[in-house]
Amino acid sequence: MERNIIMNGMIVIAMFLIAEILGAVIYYRTKDSVKRTLLTSLGLGFALAVIFADILPDALEDYPAGLWVCLLGGAVILALGYFARRIGNYSGVAALGVHNLAEGVIISAFSAPMSVFVVLGAILHKLPEGMLSFSLLDGLKEKTRFAIASLIALLIPLGAILPLSEGLTKPLLAFACGVIAVVVSKFLIMTAVELWKKADATIPRLAPAQFAIAVLSGALIALLSCLVV
C-alpha cells in the first residue's frame, strides 16, 4: 500500500513538472504578440481562480492566522510595487515557486488511484502556470525567462523530497497567496487597459473580447483542474 502511494505521488509530480515546463515552452515558441497576450490572459484568469479554489483553502486549513499572513503578503508586494513594477512581477514568480514547493509536499502523499481524470487535471493545473511564470518575467531575455520558469517547475519535486513541516509550509503558502493575488490582479488590469487603448489602432477590434474569453477560459480550467486533482 505504502509503495503504491509513493509511486502515485512520483507519477503525479512528474506530470505536474512536465506540464508546467510544457506551458513555458508553448509561450516561448509563440512569437505573435496578440497570441502571447491571449496566453498571458489565460494564465492570469487561471491564477486568480486557483488562488480562491486551491491555494487559499490549503493555506487557511488548520491555520487561523492564514488570512492575516495572506493580507500581509499582498501589502508587502503593494509596497514594493510602488517603488519598482518589475519587483512586483518577479516576486509573483517567486510566490509561484513557493506554491510549487508546497504542492510537492502535498503530492508526495498522493494516494488516489491513477486515472485519466488525474492526468487531465495535472495537465490543466500546471500548463497555464508555466505560461504565467514566463509572461511575468517580462524584461528578461527569452532564454533566461524559459530557464527561470523551468527552475520554478523543478521546485515541485524538490518540495516532495525536502523534510518541510506543515508549520512552515502553511505560513509560506498563505504569504505566497497574497503575493500572487496582488501581482496577478495588477497584471490583469494593466493588460486589459493596454488592450483597450490599442483596439482599432495596432490590434483587431475583437482583441478585448478575446482577452475576456481567455481570462474566463483560464478560470474555468482552474476550477475543473481543482475538481479532479
Q: What are the key terms here?
A:
globular, 229 residues
- Rough shape? globular
Distance between the termini: 20 Å
Low-confidence sequence ranges: none
Sheet with the most strands, sense and barrel status: none
The secondary-structure class comes to mainly alpha
Percent helix range = over 70%
Mean pLDDT: 77
- Helical stretch count? 9
- The helix-strand sequence is HHHHHHHHH
Report on the structure:
With 229 residues, the chain is mostly helical. It has one domain. The chain has nine helices and no strands. It has helices spanning 2-29, 33-60, 66-83, 85-107, 116-136, 142-153, 155-161, 166-198, 207-228. Helix 4 (85-107) packs across helix 8 and helix 5 (116-136) crosses helix 6 (142-153). The two termini are 20 Å apart. The mean pLDDT is 77.
Quick structural overview:
The chain is mostly helical.
Question: What's the helix and strand layout?
Answer:
Blueprint (H helix, E strand, L loop, with lengths): L1 H28 L3 H28 L5 H18 L1 H23 L8 H21 L5 H12 L1 H7 L4 H33 L8 H22 L1
Helix pairs in contact: 1-5, 1-6, 2-5, 2-8, 2-9, 3-4, 3-8, 4-5, 4-7, 4-8, 5-6, 5-9
